[in-house]
Amino acid sequence: MSRIGRLPIKLADKVKATVVGETVKFEGPKGKMTVKLPHPEVRPEVKGNQILVTRPTDSRRARALHGLTRSILNNAAQGVAKGWERSLAVRGVGFRAEVKGKQIHFALGFSHPVIFDLPEGVTAEVGKVPRTEDGLPTLDLTVRSVDREVLGTTAVKIRALRPPEPYKGKGIKYLEERVRRKEGKTGTA
């Protein structure tokens, strides 16, 4: 049996879950979410304040989907209870980020401003005070959502607007990311 799949999913106090056909609906203090099951072979069932994920057969496919289904449902349960967030750092002289409604306006050293549209259910917040890191001004950008998958995809797209470069470290990076630095060119002797 899958080590991850057999663990019960404990629901928080104000979280409700219902299984309806091929979907599981979650309701909590942070919002609502509907999760489509990856495969009908693996079945979740709600017992009290827990969700148990079971598989009818011991086939290779069922074993593989057992842990996956449990992880997806657990992420949804935590998302509606506490929410998910991802922090990014915008580093560089003159680099700025500003949230305007459902858009983030970036100044990333290009000849034009970059406007990023936030997907449905995702919010962003820019840190008030820029800090200095390795001599470069750094601005913190936090992205929040109930859905972990959408949040991760959004963070990847934001980082791709201007990935960190290895010489000065300018660009957009995850807050916990370490950029491997390179030494610049040296003059010939």
What can you tell me about this protein's structure?
- The protein is α+β, with helices and mostly antiparallel strands.
- The protein has helices spanning about 60-80, 150-160, and strands at about 10, 15-20, 25-30, 30-35, 45, 50-55, 85-90, 95-100, 105, 115, 120-125, 130-135, 135-145, 170-175.
- The strands form four sheets. Strands 7, 11, 12, 13 and 14 form a five-stranded antiparallel sheet that branches. The protein has a three-stranded antiparallel sheet with strand order 1-6-5. The chain has a three-stranded antiparallel sheet with strand order 2-3-4, covered by helices on one side.
Topology of this structure?
Elements: E1 9-10, E2 16-20, E3 23-28, E4 31-36, E5 43-47, E6 50-54, H1 60-81, E7 84-91, E8 96-100, E9 103-107, E10 114-117, E11 122-126, E12 131-133, E13 136-145, H2 148-160, E14 171-174
Low-pLDDT runs: none
CATH homologous superfamily grouping of the largest domain: Ribosomal protein L6
**How does CATH name the architecture of the largest domain?**
Alpha-Beta Complex
Quaternary structure state of the chains depicted: single chain
CATH topology of the largest domain: Outer Surface Protein A, domain 3
What is the highest CATH level, the class of the largest domain? Alpha Beta
Mean pLDDT: 91
SSE ordering: EEEEEEHEEEEEEEHE
In short:
19% of the residues lie in helices and 39% in strands.
List keywords for this structure.
single chain, 189 residues, alpha+beta, Outer Surface Protein A, domain 3, three-stranded antiparallel beta sheet, 2 helices, elongated
